[in-house]
């Protein structure tokens, strides 16, 4: 919708022919954006080759677990000059790859163009109402990030550029783990103090892992770090917060995911990051605790008790580690 508002012709590809028909015939996408009328400049197709033919930019926004499959389908059809961007948030379990790395691997025989990530506090429900939203466009090549900035920028949608791709992708992905935790905390009946603690100490562990993996610590106080962490931990739109909330109220993970019926990226990311923290030797007690709740039958209340009764620490120990890692 933002691209259509900016005067671009937008072709959506979907693997679901019913969704394609609904978008083209009714200008609606009822399951995902109920009540929103899509601009005429948006057309949908179930044929990926037709969708990307002669495209100036190709933007992947499928759930992280479908990224490789869809990028592989794109290979061979992407125009050589097309800007390649994504807005997906997740880390691949086992490989610990970021989304841009998965896309680059799947397209390596076709193009070596650097991928751009568009990330930040941006729930689609509010973007569709044209409410003020700010994001970061990041690529290792500033020129590529600027192209995405120029495509998307308008009076409702402000895009900043940044070249710390590692920090932007990790911040956008790891905040979903903490949002699950914020939802669990609210579901257990804990208050704002607990949520503020989760957000702040969650950011400390995101920054600790991120800097170990090469990110700039400052990125984590930017839009794709603190900004997205705030929106996902506090918004009723957040699928991660809502799923955590159902868990805190006693539902099983399978029940909560069935009720959501949409991508809840934090679940798979928690598993991936708990593994990655061990590999990287980084202390991530909140992530590990949420992993125990999601996959190992731990009771959320017991995990909170464990987190609260760890040995006393100096608050700035973590920040010093982050700075030392630079
Ligand atoms: N919804 C938001 O506000 C928002 C904002 C920023 C980033 N994101 C990120 O965008 C990504 C997608 O989220 P979403 O909200 O659109 O999820 P969603 O579950 O609402 O929609 C996902 C879409 O991908 C399609 N899909 C699923 N598996 C597929 C496959 N194997 N092949 C092709 N298509 C497939 C689904 O049919 C659906 O149309 C996630 O990584 C999410 O974190 C979402
Ligand atoms: O609804 P969530 O929890 O998947 O969050 C969506 C976006 O990442 C918010 O920026």
Automatic annotation (TrEMBL):
Binding site for sn-glycerol 3-phosphate: 89, 120, 122, 175, 228, 238-240
Glycerol-3-phosphate dehydrogenase NAD-dependent C-terminal domain boundaries: 164-304
The Glycerol-3-phosphate dehydrogenase NAD-dependent N-terminal domain, residue ranges: 1-143
Catalysed reaction, written as an equation: sn-glycerol 3-phosphate + NAD(+) = dihydroxyacetone phosphate + NADH + H(+); sn-glycerol 3-phosphate + NADP(+) = dihydroxyacetone phosphate + NADPH + H(+)
Any GO MF annotation of the entry: glycerol-3-phosphate dehydrogenase [NAD(P)+] activity
Keyword Transport part of the UniProt annotation: no
Location of the active site: 175 (proton acceptor)
InterPro entries linked: 6-PGluconate_DH-like_C_sf (IPR008927), 6PGD_dom2 (IPR013328), G3P_DH_NAD-dep (IPR006168), G3P_DH_NAD-dep_C (IPR006109), G3P_DH_NAD-dep_N (IPR011128), NAD(P)-bd_dom_sf (IPR036291)
Binding site for substrate: 89, 239-240
Superkingdom per UniProt: Bacteria
Any one GO BP annotation for this protein: glycerophospholipid metabolic process
Residues that, per the record, bind NADPH: 15, 32, 89, 124, 239, 265
Function: Catalyzes the reduction of the glycolytic intermediate dihydroxyacetone phosphate (DHAP) to sn-glycerol 3-phosphate (G3P), the key precursor for phospholipid synthesis.
Family: Belongs to the NAD-dependent glycerol-3-phosphate dehydrogenase family.
Name this polypeptide is given: Glycerol-3-phosphate dehydrogenase [NAD(P)+]
Native species: Terribacillus saccharophilus
Gene: gpsA
